[in-house]
TrEMBL record:
NCBIfam families with a match to the protein in the record: NDH_I_N
Alphabetized UniProt keyword annotations: Membrane, Transmembrane, Transmembrane helix
Alphabetized GO MF terms: NADH dehydrogenase (ubiquinone) activity
Transmembrane segments: 20-41, 48-69, 89-112, 124-143, 149-168, 180-207, 219-239, 260-282, 294-314, 326-346, 358-379, 400-423, 435-454, 480-502
Species of origin: Natronocalculus amylovorans
Protein topology in the membrane: Multi-pass membrane protein
Listed name of the protein: NADH-quinone oxidoreductase subunit N
Length: 514
Protein backbone atom coordinates (compact mmCIF):
# COMPACT_ATOMS: atom_id res chain seq x y z
CA UNK A 1 0.00 0.00 0.00
CA UNK A 2 1.17 3.52 -0.76
CA UNK A 3 2.62 5.03 2.47
CA UNK A 4 1.22 8.43 1.43
CA UNK A 5 -2.31 7.01 1.46
CA UNK A 6 -1.69 5.44 4.88
CA UNK A 7 -0.45 8.76 6.29
CA UNK A 8 -3.40 10.63 4.77
CA UNK A 9 -5.89 8.15 6.20
CA UNK A 10 -4.25 8.28 9.65
CA UNK A 11 -4.35 12.10 9.66
CA UNK A 12 -8.00 12.22 8.64
CA UNK A 13 -9.00 9.63 11.25
CA UNK A 14 -7.71 11.94 14.01
CA UNK A 15 -10.17 14.71 13.10
CA UNK A 16 -13.56 15.10 14.85
CA UNK A 17 -16.46 13.40 13.08
CA UNK A 18 -18.18 16.69 12.22
CA UNK A 19 -15.25 17.59 9.97
CA UNK A 20 -16.57 14.96 7.55
CA UNK A 21 -18.95 17.75 6.51
CA UNK A 22 -15.95 19.94 5.65
CA UNK A 23 -16.87 20.43 1.95
CA UNK A 24 -20.44 21.47 2.83
CA UNK A 25 -19.21 23.87 5.52
CA UNK A 26 -16.62 25.46 3.23
CA UNK A 27 -19.16 26.02 0.46
CA UNK A 28 -21.70 27.56 2.81
CA UNK A 29 -19.15 29.82 4.50
CA UNK A 30 -17.87 30.99 1.12
CA UNK A 31 -21.38 32.07 0.14
CA UNK A 32 -21.76 33.99 3.40
CA UNK A 33 -18.30 35.54 2.99
CA UNK A 34 -19.26 36.89 -0.42
CA UNK A 35 -22.35 38.59 1.00
CA UNK A 36 -20.28 39.98 3.90
CA UNK A 37 -17.66 41.44 1.57
CA UNK A 38 -20.37 43.00 -0.59
CA UNK A 39 -22.10 44.49 2.47
CA UNK A 40 -18.94 45.94 4.05
CA UNK A 41 -17.04 47.00 0.93
CA UNK A 42 -19.65 47.47 -1.79
CA UNK A 43 -17.87 48.01 -5.08
CA UNK A 44 -19.45 48.06 -8.47
CA UNK A 45 -16.30 46.74 -10.14
CA UNK A 46 -15.34 43.98 -7.70
CA UNK A 47 -16.22 41.15 -10.08
CA UNK A 48 -12.66 39.80 -10.00
CA UNK A 49 -12.56 39.75 -6.18
CA UNK A 50 -15.84 37.87 -5.94
CA UNK A 51 -14.75 35.40 -8.61
CA UNK A 52 -11.45 34.70 -6.81
CA UNK A 53 -13.17 34.17 -3.45
CA UNK A 54 -15.81 31.90 -5.00
CA UNK A 55 -13.30 29.87 -7.00
CA UNK A 56 -11.09 29.49 -3.94
CA UNK A 57 -14.02 28.21 -1.89
CA UNK A 58 -15.04 25.70 -4.56
CA UNK A 59 -11.47 24.48 -5.08
CA UNK A 60 -10.84 24.13 -1.32
CA UNK A 61 -14.08 22.14 -0.99
CA UNK A 62 -13.01 19.99 -3.94
CA UNK A 63 -9.57 19.45 -2.39
CA UNK A 64 -11.09 18.34 0.93
CA UNK A 65 -13.47 16.01 -0.90
CA UNK A 66 -10.69 14.36 -2.91
CA UNK A 67 -8.58 14.07 0.25
CA UNK A 68 -11.44 12.29 2.03
CA UNK A 69 -11.96 9.97 -0.93
CA UNK A 70 -8.27 9.04 -1.02
CA UNK A 71 -8.22 8.59 2.77
CA UNK A 72 -11.24 6.27 2.61
CA UNK A 73 -13.44 8.49 4.77
CA UNK A 74 -16.84 6.90 5.34
CA UNK A 75 -16.00 3.90 3.18
CA UNK A 76 -16.20 0.21 4.00
CA UNK A 77 -12.42 -0.16 4.07
CA UNK A 78 -12.14 2.44 6.85
CA UNK A 79 -14.93 1.72 9.28
CA UNK A 80 -17.96 2.43 7.12
CA UNK A 81 -20.19 5.48 6.74
CA UNK A 82 -20.03 8.35 9.23
CA UNK A 83 -23.46 9.34 10.58
CA UNK A 84 -24.23 12.67 12.22
CA UNK A 85 -27.25 14.42 13.78
CA UNK A 86 -29.10 11.26 14.84
CA UNK A 87 -28.32 9.60 11.48
CA UNK A 88 -30.00 12.38 9.47
CA UNK A 89 -26.64 12.95 7.78
CA UNK A 90 -24.37 10.24 6.36
CA UNK A 91 -20.94 10.74 4.83
CA UNK A 92 -19.84 7.83 2.67
CA UNK A 93 -18.14 7.12 -0.64
CA UNK A 94 -21.21 8.01 -2.70
CA UNK A 95 -21.66 11.37 -0.98
CA UNK A 96 -18.00 12.29 -1.52
CA UNK A 97 -18.01 11.07 -5.13
CA UNK A 98 -20.95 13.31 -6.05
CA UNK A 99 -19.63 16.25 -4.01
CA UNK A 100 -16.51 16.08 -6.16
CA UNK A 101 -18.75 16.46 -9.23
CA UNK A 102 -20.62 19.44 -7.76
CA UNK A 103 -17.52 21.33 -6.71
CA UNK A 104 -15.69 20.64 -9.99
CA UNK A 105 -18.60 21.96 -12.05
CA UNK A 106 -19.03 24.95 -9.73
CA UNK A 107 -15.35 25.88 -10.04
CA UNK A 108 -15.50 25.75 -13.85
CA UNK A 109 -18.69 27.83 -13.94
CA UNK A 110 -17.25 30.42 -11.55
CA UNK A 111 -14.11 30.90 -13.65
CA UNK A 112 -16.21 31.19 -16.82
CA UNK A 113 -18.65 33.63 -15.20
CA UNK A 114 -15.90 36.18 -14.52
CA UNK A 115 -15.98 37.28 -18.15
CA UNK A 116 -19.71 36.73 -18.58
CA UNK A 117 -20.47 39.09 -15.66
CA UNK A 118 -17.96 41.76 -16.64
CA UNK A 119 -19.46 45.15 -15.86
CA UNK A 120 -22.50 43.65 -14.09
CA UNK A 121 -23.34 45.48 -10.88
CA UNK A 122 -24.79 42.43 -9.06
CA UNK A 123 -21.92 39.97 -9.46
CA UNK A 124 -21.65 39.34 -5.69
CA UNK A 125 -25.22 38.09 -5.63
CA UNK A 126 -24.56 35.81 -8.58
CA UNK A 127 -21.53 34.12 -7.01
CA UNK A 128 -23.19 33.81 -3.60
CA UNK A 129 -26.30 32.23 -5.13
CA UNK A 130 -24.07 29.81 -7.02
CA UNK A 131 -22.24 28.85 -3.82
CA UNK A 132 -25.47 28.42 -1.86
CA UNK A 133 -26.92 26.21 -4.61
CA UNK A 134 -23.76 24.09 -4.56
CA UNK A 135 -24.02 23.89 -0.76
CA UNK A 136 -27.56 22.56 -1.08
CA UNK A 137 -26.41 19.96 -3.61
CA UNK A 138 -23.56 18.82 -1.36
CA UNK A 139 -26.06 18.54 1.49
CA UNK A 140 -28.35 16.48 -0.74
CA UNK A 141 -25.49 14.03 -1.23
CA UNK A 142 -25.16 13.41 2.53
CA UNK A 143 -28.88 13.32 3.34
CA UNK A 144 -30.02 10.17 5.11
CA UNK A 145 -33.51 11.31 6.06
CA UNK A 146 -36.43 12.27 3.85
CA UNK A 147 -36.84 15.57 5.67
CA UNK A 148 -33.13 16.36 5.17
CA UNK A 149 -33.55 15.42 1.53
CA UNK A 150 -36.43 17.86 1.13
CA UNK A 151 -34.72 20.73 2.97
CA UNK A 152 -31.48 20.33 1.02
CA UNK A 153 -33.44 20.03 -2.23
CA UNK A 154 -35.07 23.39 -1.55
CA UNK A 155 -31.69 24.86 -0.54
CA UNK A 156 -30.41 23.94 -3.99
CA UNK A 157 -33.57 24.88 -5.89
CA UNK A 158 -34.32 28.37 -4.52
CA UNK A 159 -30.95 29.89 -5.53
CA UNK A 160 -31.27 28.13 -8.89
CA UNK A 161 -34.56 29.91 -9.63
CA UNK A 162 -32.86 33.25 -8.99
CA UNK A 163 -29.83 32.30 -11.09
CA UNK A 164 -32.00 31.45 -14.10
CA UNK A 165 -33.65 34.88 -13.89
CA UNK A 166 -30.44 36.73 -13.07
CA UNK A 167 -30.59 38.81 -16.27
CA UNK A 168 -33.45 40.95 -15.01
CA UNK A 169 -33.68 43.06 -18.16
CA UNK A 170 -33.79 40.02 -20.42
CA UNK A 171 -37.37 38.90 -21.01
CA UNK A 172 -36.33 35.35 -21.86
CA UNK A 173 -34.37 34.99 -18.63
CA UNK A 174 -37.21 36.29 -16.44
CA UNK A 175 -39.80 34.16 -18.24
CA UNK A 176 -37.64 31.03 -17.89
CA UNK A 177 -37.14 31.72 -14.19
CA UNK A 178 -40.87 32.13 -13.59
CA UNK A 179 -41.68 28.86 -15.39
CA UNK A 180 -38.92 27.05 -13.54
CA UNK A 181 -40.17 28.38 -10.20
CA UNK A 182 -43.84 27.54 -10.76
CA UNK A 183 -43.14 24.00 -11.95
CA UNK A 184 -40.56 23.55 -9.18
CA UNK A 185 -43.06 24.65 -6.53
CA UNK A 186 -45.62 22.15 -7.80
CA UNK A 187 -43.00 19.41 -7.87
CA UNK A 188 -41.92 20.20 -4.31
CA UNK A 189 -45.52 19.97 -3.12
CA UNK A 190 -45.97 16.56 -4.75
CA UNK A 191 -42.63 15.37 -3.38
CA UNK A 192 -43.48 16.55 0.15
CA UNK A 193 -46.88 14.87 0.04
CA UNK A 194 -45.19 11.63 -0.99
CA UNK A 195 -42.84 11.96 2.01
CA UNK A 196 -45.84 12.44 4.31
CA UNK A 197 -47.42 9.23 3.00
CA UNK A 198 -44.23 7.23 3.59
CA UNK A 199 -44.02 8.67 7.11
CA UNK A 200 -47.66 7.78 7.76
CA UNK A 201 -46.97 4.17 6.73
CA UNK A 202 -43.58 3.61 8.38
CA UNK A 203 -43.56 6.12 11.24
CA UNK A 204 -40.06 7.27 10.37
CA UNK A 205 -38.19 9.59 8.04
CA UNK A 206 -34.76 7.93 8.33
CA UNK A 207 -33.92 5.88 5.28
CA UNK A 208 -32.53 2.96 7.28
CA UNK A 209 -35.64 2.74 9.48
CA UNK A 210 -37.96 2.98 6.48
CA UNK A 211 -36.04 0.13 4.87
CA UNK A 212 -36.35 -1.97 8.05
CA UNK A 213 -40.10 -1.38 8.19
CA UNK A 214 -40.57 -2.45 4.58
CA UNK A 215 -38.27 -5.47 5.00
CA UNK A 216 -40.23 -6.72 8.03
CA UNK A 217 -43.49 -6.57 6.10
CA UNK A 218 -45.05 -4.44 8.81
CA UNK A 219 -46.75 -2.14 6.30
CA UNK A 220 -48.45 -4.85 4.23
CA UNK A 221 -51.89 -3.49 5.09
CA UNK A 222 -50.94 -0.08 3.73
CA UNK A 223 -49.26 -1.16 0.51
CA UNK A 224 -51.51 1.10 -1.55
CA UNK A 225 -50.61 4.18 0.47
CA UNK A 226 -46.93 3.28 0.34
CA UNK A 227 -47.14 2.77 -3.41
CA UNK A 228 -48.64 6.22 -3.94
CA UNK A 229 -45.96 7.76 -1.72
CA UNK A 230 -43.18 6.03 -3.63
CA UNK A 231 -44.71 7.14 -6.92
CA UNK A 232 -44.89 10.77 -5.81
CA UNK A 233 -41.31 10.73 -4.57
CA UNK A 234 -40.20 9.18 -7.86
CA UNK A 235 -42.01 11.98 -9.68
CA UNK A 236 -40.18 14.58 -7.61
CA UNK A 237 -36.83 13.08 -8.54
CA UNK A 238 -37.85 12.79 -12.19
CA UNK A 239 -38.54 16.53 -12.19
CA UNK A 240 -35.18 17.34 -10.60
CA UNK A 241 -33.31 15.22 -13.15
CA UNK A 242 -35.40 16.54 -16.09
CA UNK A 243 -36.67 13.07 -16.97
CA UNK A 244 -39.63 12.53 -19.31
CA UNK A 245 -42.51 13.35 -18.78
CA UNK A 246 -41.31 15.91 -16.22
CA UNK A 247 -38.76 17.43 -18.57
CA UNK A 248 -40.64 20.29 -20.21
CA UNK A 249 -39.16 22.93 -17.90
CA UNK A 250 -35.56 22.14 -18.84
CA UNK A 251 -35.36 23.46 -22.44
CA UNK A 252 -37.10 26.69 -21.42
CA UNK A 253 -34.92 27.22 -18.34
CA UNK A 254 -31.63 26.32 -20.05
CA UNK A 255 -32.36 28.49 -23.08
CA UNK A 256 -33.43 31.55 -21.11
CA UNK A 257 -30.79 31.34 -18.37
CA UNK A 258 -27.28 32.77 -18.70
CA UNK A 259 -25.21 30.07 -20.40
CA UNK A 260 -22.93 29.47 -17.35
CA UNK A 261 -26.07 28.88 -15.28
CA UNK A 262 -27.34 26.45 -17.91
CA UNK A 263 -24.04 24.59 -17.62
CA UNK A 264 -24.39 24.47 -13.85
CA UNK A 265 -28.00 23.27 -13.84
CA UNK A 266 -27.64 20.68 -16.59
CA UNK A 267 -24.58 19.10 -14.95
CA UNK A 268 -24.42 19.69 -11.20
CA UNK A 269 -28.15 19.99 -10.53
CA UNK A 270 -28.88 16.85 -12.55
CA UNK A 271 -26.21 14.91 -10.64
CA UNK A 272 -27.70 16.17 -7.36
CA UNK A 273 -31.08 14.75 -8.28
CA UNK A 274 -29.51 11.39 -9.06
CA UNK A 275 -27.46 11.09 -5.87
CA UNK A 276 -30.60 11.50 -3.77
CA UNK A 277 -32.61 9.15 -5.97
CA UNK A 278 -29.87 6.52 -5.81
CA UNK A 279 -29.68 6.72 -2.02
CA UNK A 280 -33.41 6.85 -1.30
CA UNK A 281 -34.46 4.04 -3.62
CA UNK A 282 -31.43 1.78 -3.08
CA UNK A 283 -31.41 2.19 0.69
CA UNK A 284 -35.01 2.86 1.77
CA UNK A 285 -37.22 1.35 -0.93
CA UNK A 286 -35.13 -1.62 -2.05
CA UNK A 287 -37.03 -4.15 0.16
CA UNK A 288 -40.27 -3.29 -1.65
CA UNK A 289 -39.04 -5.08 -4.78
CA UNK A 290 -38.92 -8.34 -2.81
CA UNK A 291 -41.57 -7.98 -0.11
CA UNK A 292 -44.20 -6.09 -2.12
CA UNK A 293 -43.77 -6.93 -5.84
CA UNK A 294 -46.83 -4.81 -6.68
CA UNK A 295 -44.76 -1.69 -5.94
CA UNK A 296 -42.23 -2.28 -8.72
CA UNK A 297 -40.54 1.11 -8.78
CA UNK A 298 -37.62 -0.30 -10.80
CA UNK A 299 -40.03 -1.02 -13.67
CA UNK A 300 -41.33 2.55 -13.42
CA UNK A 301 -37.78 3.86 -13.74
CA UNK A 302 -37.18 1.51 -16.68
CA UNK A 303 -40.14 3.07 -18.49
CA UNK A 304 -38.89 6.55 -17.60
CA UNK A 305 -35.40 5.67 -18.84
CA UNK A 306 -36.67 4.49 -22.23
CA UNK A 307 -38.97 7.48 -22.68
CA UNK A 308 -36.26 9.92 -21.58
CA UNK A 309 -33.61 8.47 -23.89
CA UNK A 310 -35.95 8.40 -26.89
CA UNK A 311 -37.71 11.75 -26.41
CA UNK A 312 -34.55 13.62 -25.40
CA UNK A 313 -32.49 12.47 -28.37
CA UNK A 314 -35.23 12.75 -30.99
CA UNK A 315 -36.18 16.24 -29.78
CA UNK A 316 -32.52 17.31 -29.84
CA UNK A 317 -32.23 16.12 -33.44
CA UNK A 318 -34.96 18.56 -34.56
CA UNK A 319 -33.50 21.71 -32.99
CA UNK A 320 -31.86 24.58 -34.87
CA UNK A 321 -30.86 26.48 -31.73
CA UNK A 322 -27.58 25.01 -30.41
CA UNK A 323 -28.32 25.83 -26.78
CA UNK A 324 -31.76 24.26 -26.99
CA UNK A 325 -30.25 21.21 -28.68
CA UNK A 326 -27.90 20.75 -25.74
CA UNK A 327 -30.83 21.14 -23.37
CA UNK A 328 -32.66 18.23 -24.97
CA UNK A 329 -29.37 16.35 -25.14
CA UNK A 330 -29.04 16.65 -21.37
CA UNK A 331 -32.51 15.12 -21.06
CA UNK A 332 -31.32 12.16 -23.12
CA UNK A 333 -28.34 11.71 -20.82
CA UNK A 334 -30.69 11.67 -17.84
CA UNK A 335 -32.21 8.60 -19.47
CA UNK A 336 -28.82 6.89 -19.57
CA UNK A 337 -28.23 7.62 -15.87
CA UNK A 338 -31.72 6.29 -15.04
CA UNK A 339 -30.47 2.85 -16.06
CA UNK A 340 -28.64 2.91 -12.72
CA UNK A 341 -32.05 2.64 -11.03
CA UNK A 342 -34.00 0.77 -13.69
CA UNK A 343 -31.64 -2.23 -13.77
CA UNK A 344 -31.77 -2.88 -10.02
CA UNK A 345 -33.29 -6.12 -8.75
CA UNK A 346 -33.98 -7.51 -5.29
CA UNK A 347 -30.72 -9.02 -4.12
CA UNK A 348 -29.22 -8.64 -7.58
CA UNK A 349 -25.48 -9.42 -7.74
CA UNK A 350 -24.89 -6.63 -10.27
CA UNK A 351 -26.70 -3.81 -8.45
CA UNK A 352 -23.48 -2.13 -7.33
CA UNK A 353 -21.97 -2.40 -10.82
CA UNK A 354 -25.01 -0.88 -12.53
CA UNK A 355 -25.36 2.04 -10.14
CA UNK A 356 -21.58 2.58 -10.04
CA UNK A 357 -21.43 2.75 -13.84
CA UNK A 358 -24.22 5.36 -13.81
CA UNK A 359 -22.24 7.38 -11.25
CA UNK A 360 -19.09 7.18 -13.37
CA UNK A 361 -21.06 8.35 -16.42
CA UNK A 362 -22.35 11.34 -14.47
CA UNK A 363 -18.76 12.23 -13.53
CA UNK A 364 -17.56 12.34 -17.14
CA UNK A 365 -20.83 13.96 -18.23
CA UNK A 366 -20.19 16.73 -15.69
CA UNK A 367 -17.04 17.85 -17.50
CA UNK A 368 -18.04 17.34 -21.13
CA UNK A 369 -21.52 18.85 -20.78
CA UNK A 370 -20.31 21.79 -18.69
CA UNK A 371 -17.60 22.48 -21.26
CA UNK A 372 -20.13 22.40 -24.11
CA UNK A 373 -22.42 24.93 -22.40
CA UNK A 374 -19.45 27.15 -21.56
CA UNK A 375 -18.53 27.16 -25.25
CA UNK A 376 -22.05 28.44 -25.92
CA UNK A 377 -21.49 31.04 -23.19
CA UNK A 378 -18.41 32.24 -25.07
CA UNK A 379 -20.40 32.51 -28.30
CA UNK A 380 -23.12 34.45 -26.46
CA UNK A 381 -20.42 36.72 -25.01
CA UNK A 382 -19.31 37.53 -28.55
CA UNK A 383 -22.89 38.04 -29.72
CA UNK A 384 -22.42 35.79 -32.74
CA UNK A 385 -25.82 34.09 -32.67
CA UNK A 386 -27.51 30.93 -31.44
CA UNK A 387 -28.25 28.72 -34.47
CA UNK A 388 -26.05 26.16 -36.21
CA UNK A 389 -25.65 28.58 -39.12
CA UNK A 390 -24.35 31.26 -36.77
CA UNK A 391 -21.59 28.88 -35.62
CA UNK A 392 -20.26 28.43 -39.16
CA UNK A 393 -16.50 28.95 -39.42
CA UNK A 394 -15.89 29.64 -35.72
CA UNK A 395 -12.70 27.57 -35.87
CA UNK A 396 -11.09 30.40 -37.85
CA UNK A 397 -11.47 32.73 -34.86
CA UNK A 398 -11.02 30.35 -31.90
CA UNK A 399 -9.36 27.13 -33.09
CA UNK A 400 -8.33 25.84 -29.66
CA UNK A 401 -11.79 26.30 -28.17
CA UNK A 402 -13.32 24.65 -31.24
CA UNK A 403 -11.04 21.65 -30.75
CA UNK A 404 -12.35 21.46 -27.19
CA UNK A 405 -15.95 21.70 -28.45
CA UNK A 406 -15.32 18.83 -30.88
CA UNK A 407 -14.01 16.76 -27.95
CA UNK A 408 -17.17 17.55 -25.98
CA UNK A 409 -19.49 16.69 -28.85
CA UNK A 410 -17.84 13.39 -29.76
CA UNK A 411 -17.57 12.41 -26.10
CA UNK A 412 -21.25 13.19 -25.48
CA UNK A 413 -22.10 11.08 -28.53
CA UNK A 414 -20.09 8.20 -27.08
CA UNK A 415 -17.61 7.75 -29.91
CA UNK A 416 -14.68 5.40 -29.21
CA UNK A 417 -11.48 6.87 -27.77
CA UNK A 418 -13.46 9.59 -25.96
CA UNK A 419 -14.47 9.49 -22.29
CA UNK A 420 -18.18 9.27 -23.00
CA UNK A 421 -17.65 6.02 -24.89
CA UNK A 422 -16.08 4.27 -21.89
CA UNK A 423 -18.73 5.49 -19.45
CA UNK A 424 -21.59 4.46 -21.75
CA UNK A 425 -19.93 1.13 -22.49
CA UNK A 426 -19.55 0.38 -18.77
CA UNK A 427 -23.16 1.41 -18.15
CA UNK A 428 -24.63 -0.64 -21.00
CA UNK A 429 -22.42 -3.65 -20.24
CA UNK A 430 -23.49 -3.65 -16.59
CA UNK A 431 -27.15 -3.43 -17.65
CA UNK A 432 -26.68 -6.45 -19.95
CA UNK A 433 -24.98 -8.38 -17.14
CA UNK A 434 -27.97 -7.62 -14.89
CA UNK A 435 -30.33 -9.00 -17.55
CA UNK A 436 -31.61 -5.66 -18.87
CA UNK A 437 -30.20 -5.98 -22.38
CA UNK A 438 -33.17 -4.13 -23.84
CA UNK A 439 -32.31 -0.99 -21.85
CA UNK A 440 -28.76 -1.19 -23.18
CA UNK A 441 -30.13 -1.66 -26.71
CA UNK A 442 -32.29 1.46 -26.47
CA UNK A 443 -29.31 3.36 -25.07
CA UNK A 444 -27.05 2.23 -27.92
CA UNK A 445 -29.58 3.16 -30.61
CA UNK A 446 -30.29 6.60 -29.16
CA UNK A 447 -26.54 7.21 -28.74
CA UNK A 448 -26.09 6.48 -32.43
CA UNK A 449 -28.86 8.99 -33.19
CA UNK A 450 -27.15 11.62 -31.03
CA UNK A 451 -24.11 11.52 -33.31
CA UNK A 452 -26.24 13.25 -35.98
CA UNK A 453 -26.95 16.43 -34.04
CA UNK A 454 -23.60 16.54 -32.23
CA UNK A 455 -21.77 16.26 -35.55
CA UNK A 456 -23.81 19.20 -36.87
CA UNK A 457 -22.01 21.44 -34.38
CA UNK A 458 -18.60 20.09 -35.40
CA UNK A 459 -19.47 20.46 -39.08
CA UNK A 460 -20.58 24.05 -38.59
CA UNK A 461 -17.53 25.25 -36.68
CA UNK A 462 -14.91 23.35 -38.71
CA UNK A 463 -16.22 22.76 -42.24
CA UNK A 464 -18.78 25.42 -43.13
CA UNK A 465 -17.69 28.85 -44.30
CA UNK A 466 -18.40 31.94 -42.14
CA UNK A 467 -21.45 33.95 -43.16
CA UNK A 468 -20.02 37.30 -42.06
CA UNK A 469 -21.32 37.41 -38.51
CA UNK A 470 -17.92 36.54 -36.98
CA UNK A 471 -16.61 40.06 -37.53
CA UNK A 472 -17.98 41.01 -34.09
CA UNK A 473 -15.35 38.79 -32.43
CA UNK A 474 -12.56 41.05 -31.21
CA UNK A 475 -11.01 39.32 -28.19
CA UNK A 476 -11.06 36.00 -26.38
CA UNK A 477 -12.54 36.10 -22.85
CA UNK A 478 -9.73 34.72 -20.69
CA UNK A 479 -11.82 33.08 -17.97
CA UNK A 480 -14.28 31.45 -20.36
CA UNK A 481 -11.50 30.25 -22.63
CA UNK A 482 -9.53 28.79 -19.73
CA UNK A 483 -12.60 26.99 -18.31
CA UNK A 484 -13.41 25.46 -21.70
CA UNK A 485 -9.85 24.23 -22.22
CA UNK A 486 -9.66 22.85 -18.69
CA UNK A 487 -12.96 20.98 -19.14
CA UNK A 488 -11.62 19.48 -22.37
CA UNK A 489 -8.36 18.46 -20.71
CA UNK A 490 -10.27 16.89 -17.82
CA UNK A 491 -12.46 14.99 -20.30
CA UNK A 492 -9.36 13.62 -22.03
CA UNK A 493 -7.52 12.84 -18.78
CA UNK A 494 -10.52 10.81 -17.61
CA UNK A 495 -9.68 8.30 -20.37
CA UNK A 496 -6.72 6.73 -18.53
CA UNK A 497 -8.31 7.58 -15.19
CA UNK A 498 -11.70 6.03 -15.95
CA UNK A 499 -10.92 2.58 -14.45
CA UNK A 500 -10.06 4.29 -11.15
CA UNK A 501 -13.22 6.43 -11.26
CA UNK A 502 -15.36 3.40 -12.13
CA UNK A 503 -13.83 1.29 -9.35
CA UNK A 504 -14.40 4.08 -6.82
CA UNK A 505 -18.01 4.55 -7.97
CA UNK A 506 -18.79 0.83 -7.89
CA UNK A 507 -17.31 0.48 -4.40
CA UNK A 508 -19.40 3.42 -3.17
CA UNK A 509 -22.58 2.07 -4.78
CA UNK A 510 -22.01 -1.49 -3.57
CA UNK A 511 -21.85 -0.23 0.02
CA UNK A 512 -25.55 0.69 -0.22
CA UNK A 513 -26.47 -2.92 -0.98
CA UNK A 514 -24.22 -4.54 1.63
Amino acid sequence: MDPTVVTTAALQSQLPEWTALGPVIVLGLTGLLLLTIDAIWPKRNANTTYAIVSAAGAIIALGITVWYLVAGTGQETHGGAITLFSEAIVVDGMALFFTAIFTSVAALVIVASHDYLKGHENSAEFYSLLMFATTGMALMAVSNSLVTVFVSLEMASLPSYALVGFLKKDRGSVEASLKYFLIGALSSAVFLFGISLIYAVTGSLLLTEISAQFADGGVAGFAGVAGIGVLMIAGGFAYKTASVPFHFWAPEAYEGAPAPVSAFLSSASKAAGFVVAFRVFAEAFMPLLEVTPAIDWALAFAVLAVLTMVVGNFAAATQENVKRMLAYSSIGHAGYALIGLAALTAGGPHNGDVMGAAMAHLLIYGFMNTGAFLFIAMVEYWGVGRTFEDYAGLSQKAPLACVAMAVFMFSLAGLPVFGGFFSKYALFASAVSAGFWWLAAVGAVTSALSLYYYSRVVKAIWIEEPNGNLDVIESKPTGLYAAIIFAAVATVLLLPGFPIALETAEAAASALFA
